[in-house]
Amino acid sequence: MYTVKITVIRKACYTDLIEQYENPIEHSCDIQLGQVFFAKDGQKPTGFCDSAWETLSPFVQTLAQGGGNFYDGWMKNPHSAMLSCNDGFRPVSFFVETIEDDKKE
Question: Which terminal CB of the chain, N or C, has fewer other CB atoms within 10 Å?
Answer without folding.
Answer: C
